[in-house]
Amino acid sequence: MYIYTGSLQKNDRRRHNKKSRSSSMAIAASFSSSSLRLLHHTLFPKYPFLSRNSQFRPPLQVFSFRFSPRIRASSAVAIEQDTNSLQQDTSEVDLFACPICYEPLIRKGPPGFNLPAIYRSGFKCKICNKSYSSKNVYVDLTVTAGMKDYTEYKPVRTELFRSPLVSFLYERGWRQNFNLSGFPGPDEEFIMAQEYFKAAAGGILVDVSCGSGLFSRKFSKSETYSRVIALDFSENMLRQCYDFIKNDYTILNNNLALVRADVSRLPFSSGSVDAVHAGAALHCWPSPSNAVAEINRILRSGGVFVGTTFLRVRSSTPAIMMPFRQRIRQTYNNLTEEEIEDLCTSCGLINYTSKVQQSFIMFSAQKP
Fold this sequence. Notes:
Elements: H1 6-43, H2 67-91, E1 106-108, H3 115-118, E2 122-124, E3 131-132, E4 139-140, H4 156-159, H5 164-174, H6 186-196, E5 204-208, H7 214-222, E6 227-232, H8 235-246, E7 256-260, E8 273-278, H9 288-298, E9 299-310, H10 322-328, H11 337-346, E10 350-357, E11 360-366
Parallel strand pairs: 4-7, 5-6, 5-8, 6-7, 8-9
Antiparallel strand pairs: 1-2, 2-3, 9-11, 10-11
């Protein structure tokens, strides 16, 4: 009996080929799945591999290219925020300037205008490339700051107040003796000065030759001014000033800074200050004319300068007392009423006025 086997062989081959293809697909699928799983774990170790049979279907848009612009947008925001914060930091410093070229200093340090922030900051002039650093409690912004070999001395009347002993005694008996010469006393003098400074309320006040900070602290506590700078050439006076401030929590974090500087080379940009106070100071300055000219430079238009000092002689001083008054000039640079007025007006200030009591004078003048 003849049996045709061609059809059966074809069927067997088809079944065999189908089984081979199924096995190959299974192997390929298995290989593909394991390869993908391995690749996924390599790239995304924190996230589990989800098979195609999983019920969880993350939205396709997660992997869309829209994600990249979002990164750029958030980065731009971060950069913009950093730029703004940098501008805020540097804007705090625009007030301080290099005492050599008067270019505003670049500040590096914590933001804010208070004692802890200022004395933890460093300052640098981008023109002179000179750096100015803090001395634990104050910022040294003198021309000689950082010099290693060069030493500069001031007249005896200036060097006297750099003494640690005089700095310690200044508010412990020294200043109290001023009432013998007609000084009304710190409280009354402060009230008188505040009357002159009414036009400068809310502005920046610099207390030059501040000594131990007797009036700087009063100005800061009054909260009349946006910033108060206690400035003196004496390192020990500034240290003494800090000792008083650190024990007074009411002003420790106020907008107050301690700066060492020369009154004849004030470290401020021109026209940046609203008020300048100089209590019992003018007679100690090496060059009152240079100092008043500097004060005029840093004052804004309408800014006010108020000072107190000892008079040498008055028009009403008896002639017999003249020789004794003249001897005082050998130690201190005491001036007459007329000389002080001439000094202020010759340096460009206007609206001069004064109050006199014995040898005490409080005078005020304004920048046009």
